[in-house]
Amino acid sequence: MSTLSVSTPTSASQVKVAEKRGLSTAAKRRLPLLPALVFVIAVTQLPFLLTVFYSFQSWNLVRPGSRHFVGLDNYVDVFSDTTFLVALLNTVVLTVVCVFVALLLGLGLAILLDRKFFGRGVVRTLLITPFLILPAAGALLWKTTMFDPTYGLLHFVFGTDVDWLSEFPLAAVMAQVVWQWTPFMMLLILAGLQSQSKEVLEAANVDGAGRWRTFVSITLPHLSRFLQLATLLGAIYIVNSFDAIFLMTQGGPGTASTNLPYYIYQRAFEGFDVGQSSAMGVIVVILTMIVATFALRLMFRTFSVSGGIK
Amino acid sequence: MRKLLTLLAATSLLVTGCAGAGSLGTGTSTLVIAIVANPQMKDAIALAPEFEKATGINLKFVSLPENQVRAKITASTATEGGEFDVVMISNYEAPQWAANGWLENLEPHMAATPGYDEGDFIPSIKQSLSYRNEMYAVPFYGESSFLAYRKDLFEKAGLTMPARPTWPQIADFAAKLDDKVHGVAGICLRGKPGWGESLAPFTTVANTFGAQWFDKDWNAKLTSPEFAEAAKFYVNLIREHGEVGASSAGFSECGTRYTQGQAAMWYDATVMAGTNEDPASSKIVGKSGYAPAPVVRTEASGWLYTWALGIPKVAKDKDAAWKFMAWMTDKAYVQKVGHTYGWNRVPPGVRQSTYAIPEYAEAAKAYAKPTLDGIAAANQQKTMANPVPYPGIQFVGIPEFQDLGTRVSQQLSAAIAGRESVEDALKQSQDYAQTVGDSYKAVQ
Amino acid sequence: MTTVAPRKRQYGKGSLTVATWVLAILFVFPLLWMILTAFKQEADAYTDPPKLLFSPTLHQIGNVLGGSFLPYLANSAFVTVLSTLLVLLLGVPAAYALSLAPVKGTSNALGFFLSTKMLPIVAAIIPLYVISQNTELLDTVWALVILYTSMNLPLAIWMMRSFFLEVPHEMIEAGRIDGANLPTLLRKIIMPVVAPGIAATALICVIFSWTEFFYAVNLTAARAGTVPVFLVGFITSEGLYWAQLSAAALLASLPVMIVGWIAQNHLVRGLSMGAVK
Predict the structure, then answer these.
(1) Average pLDDT over residues C249-269
(2) Residue B103 — pLDDT band, cuts 50, 70, 90?
(3) CB A163 to CB B420 under 8 A?
(4) Where is the ABC transmembrane type-1 domain (chain A) (predicted)?
(5) Chains touching C, CB cut-off 8 Å, 3+ pairs
(6) Residue from the list B398, B414, B416 with its beta carbon closest to the beta carbon of A255
(7) Which of A97, A182, A259, B97 is the most exposed place for a label (fewest CB within 10 A)?
(8) Chain A residues with CB inside 8 Å of B431's CB?
């Protein structure tokens, strides 16, 4: 910290014109960044490099002596594996549907909460709670007390003996994930709604704009960056969904609700095929990078807006 | 906000203290035991404090369902991780792991324990846990597979179970006994994915239909006419007259259904009888008959399986580990369970002396003999039509089978759930299997 | 929403309030049901139709607390608190460097941090397993502390950066002109503005660490299991266990639930990354 104080007197006015400064000052300014950078690189990047290395090997953990270099064989096998493609498709469906539905529900609930009414604080507290309970607990509760074909609440409400988890496995998992993430979306959108300038809304009201008009032409544009942020953060977490599938359906029946994280887990920790599961990991990272390039751009746009004005 | 931070810091200090005591410094006299959460093992966990009191050795159990605990145990043993001092494994793992040098040879330990009497173990079970005729795991319970059927329902329908039923006969009975109105399925069969779940009963069916996973030159045979016939038979039987939610029903789920009176027949592990005849868990005590595993083209078809205890080579305190294993697998333990929980809950299929106990013989008279006969007949010569290049009956005794079997069982489950045709399921499975077979061809 | 009557009409307002309440209760019903079930006897948990009225019992809660639950709770608390403190220790300077004293390549660094968040956690699990084993970290709380820190750090830096950006330049300049050095500036001017943001960030880290499942399941066995791992034992469906499961789920979630309820406003703040004052 003491090294930092040296640099401050030299800065004449603008903090942001750091580029023009001498190298040593810039280096000192980077110093506070270094520990975090080194830590993140060590913990996230190095293991991944090992994954890449393993992906070129045929290696079954429980067959000693099986480890040898096979080039791209693992990748060829992965792409001809229909289950991998099913898992990929399930991942996309799960992520897109869950983010979209949770966003819509969150928007609706946020609009309902964005006004003064009796017990508003209590209602908000109630609504955020699904986000606070352990996803593992949520998944097991949905599996048992909600979806059970004999004693579950859904059986009681709809009066059918449908075995939800085997007839609609992916939808059942998605219902749980949406339930878990809707409060997150709601909170974000609510923050957006409450940051609207009251004067603008009043003015629109005076001008005789209906509530729908006001919502579409003033509120939605204002919300857009919050919606983007919610989508991005939601997608980052939901694409990695593992708990719900592991605990509710084990990926089944068959592979009907297997997503990529679960499939890779199975190949790695139930099948011990290090080579192929590593190859899958690498493919997933490449696919994510392609999608993320677009997402990151979005993120930067979002933040240059929110950060820039202040 | 600052309060929040202070609070955080304060709790961290507090918690560091707690966790330090609870998790970070585990004493050397604590054994960590990874165990499958089946009913007989839960009884052992409940009785374990007696062992702790008698020996001063502390025990910590990691007790999880089969798929989860197997993943943990295998990862830990294969990488020599050393998290566990005692692991529960089966006759699938024991010989392979012994050959890999991952397990402690138990012969010296047994020899140094007077009265342990390893000669009392049922020979086929003992053999299945041995490598070069030395035991690397000691059996806790052993099983074959057989068919439980409801004598009362058979009588009501005017049916009689033959002494040696065939699968077509069973399918016929299932059709006649299927009672959807009263929620009674014709038969309960496993459909839950997992090589130790649905593939165990299914592979015995395939074997007796004359099918096999690999021929003796390691060519995968999953699309052979016999295999397809067996798969169609199994899938159709479940789909037409099986239990609801079959694609996620395993041993436990079928057990719950059968003991609650929701199935007329159940083909599964012989250990099921203990639960079926236990008044604490079953509504149908005394109503079941037990028939040998149904056959088609072979003389017998039951599997051979045992849950056993072994010590990983890297475990620190092997003597303490052995003391615990000896406690859990010796004759005194059988007596203790019988007197504490009742004789139906005694771990079966391991010690010949168990079957000589009068109380046990009385409690188990419906199923003791079928169990022993099943175990005795469970060998490749009697249950398979053709020679195969691998050990095992209901599994293929190679390391890759965990992965291969799981993936094939997923395909089977998908077919049972009606999401895929049997042909498609087998075609994909054949691809998986051939990749594995090729890696053995190369070796030869 | 379009059909809703104008604000001034009392009737419309009233019915909307009722509707909001009904929706909220429906939405959290699975949770309320869990709480009810946690106080049931097992037999009361398995009834058709489901039972709303029953004689409550503390039997299940007592069972869970009397069993092996507490070590898991202690591990969770330890991992959560320590990893959150580490995130702050590493993240605050980084956020400062990326906001108030930006240098060339700032946006690259930011992009890099965020991109690590997009790396699917499953992609590196095998190397992580092997590495933690070789470093004797397998099945220890330390492996989780390290991984949770790296898991939360990128998001935390992003959040805190946006809070640092809220500090008005004029105030910093004014402080400098008065001759304040950096520590003084930090203490007197910057911290008061960003402290709420840091607290909010810490809260988010606490939630994500407490609820993390994947690493915990794969990298712990007997000693370092956290509360989500405790729940894995409930996967099988043998016998009657719903009431006990509900009690366990309730106890496992309670600490974070309470913290989240108390600090609701921080939660909003943290999630919207300082976009709201």
Answers:
(1) 88
(2) very high
(3) no
(4) 88-295
(5) A, B
(6) B414
(7) A97
(8) 80
Cβ contact C133–B81 (<8 Å)? yes
In angstroms, the separation between the Cα of residue B189 and the nearest Cα of chain C is 16
CB B135, CB B104: distance < 8 Å: no
Q: Is the pLDDT of residue B363 over 50?
A: yes
- Cα–Cα distance measured from residue B356 to residue B360, given in angstroms and rounded to the nearest whole number: 8
- Tens digits of residue pLDDT in B12-33: 444 444 444 334 434 447 899 9
Residue given tokens 């049922």 in the structure block = B122
- CA-based nearest distance B68→chain C, Å: 9
Strand positions, DSSP E, B245-369: 265-269, 288-292, 305-310
Q: Which amino acid is at B288?
A: S
User: Chain A, 17-76: which have a CB under 8 Å from a chain B CB?
Assistant: 58, 60-64, 66
Tell me the pLDDT band of A198, cut-offs 50, 70 and 90: confident
Nearest Cα neighbor of A198 from A141, A265, A115 is A115
Whether the per-residue pLDDT at A299 is higher than 70: the answer is no
**Chain B neighbors of C74, CB-CB under 8 A:** 15, 18-19, 22-23
**pLDDT reading at A2 higher than 80:** no
- The CB density around residue B330, as the number of other CB atoms within 10 Å, is 19
Residues of C in contact with B22 (CB under 8 A): 70-71, 74-75
A-contacting residues in B 182-201 (Cβ below 8 Å): 191-193
3-state secondary structure of A250: coil
Three-class HEC string of B131-156:
ECCEECCEEEEEECEEEEEEHHHHHH
Q: Which of A31, A150, A191 is facing C276, going by the closest CB pair?
A: A191
Closest partner residue to B410 among A64, A161, A252, by Cβ?
A: A252
Q: What is the mean pLDDT of residues B36-62?
A: 91
Q: Tell me how far apart the alpha carbons of residues A266 and B18 are, in angstroms, rounded to a whole number.
A: 35
B72 to chain C: which residues are within 8 Å by CB? 221
The whole-angstrom separation of Cα C208 and Cα C203 is 9
**In angstroms, rounded to a whole number, what is the distance separating the alpha carbons of residues B264 and B154?**
8
Residue C191: band (very low, low, confident or very high) from pLDDT cuts 50, 70, 90: confident
Cβ <8 Å between C77 and B18: yes
Q: How far is CA A189 from CA A102, A223, A226, C3, C155, in A?
A: 11, 7, 6, 21, 19
* CA torsion angle C20 C25 C26 C28 (round to 10): 120
The residues with which B58 forms a beta bridge, in sequence order, are B30
CB pairs under 8 A between B and C: 104
Nearest CA in chain A to B70: A270
pLDDT given for residue C192 in this prediction? 85
Chain B residues touching residue C198 (CB < 8 angstroms):
1, 5
Distance from CA of C135 to the nearest CA of A (A): 13
Mean pLDDT of C132-147: 91
Do residues A56 and A69 make contact, with C-beta atoms less than 8 angstroms apart? yes
> Region A234-258: what's the mean pLDDT?
88
User: Can you list the alpha helix ranges (DSSP code H) found in C100-211?
Assistant: 106-118, 125-134, 141-164, 169-177, 182-185, 191-211
Neighbours of C196 (CB within 10 A): 19
Instruction: Enumerate residues 229 to 288 of chain B having a beta carbon within 8 A of any beta carbon in chain A.
Output: 244-248
Rounded to the nearest integer, the mean pLDDT of chain A is 83
pLDDT over threshold 60, residue B329: yes
Is residue B201 helix, strand or coil? Answer: helix
Question: Whole-prediction pTM value?
Answer: 0.85
Would you call C205 an interface residue with chain B, using a CB distance cutoff of 8 Å?
no
Q: Quick count: other Cβ atoms within 10 Å of Cβ C69?
A: 17
Q: What is the mean pLDDT of residues A239-245?
A: 92
Helix, strand or coil, per DSSP, at residue B176: helix
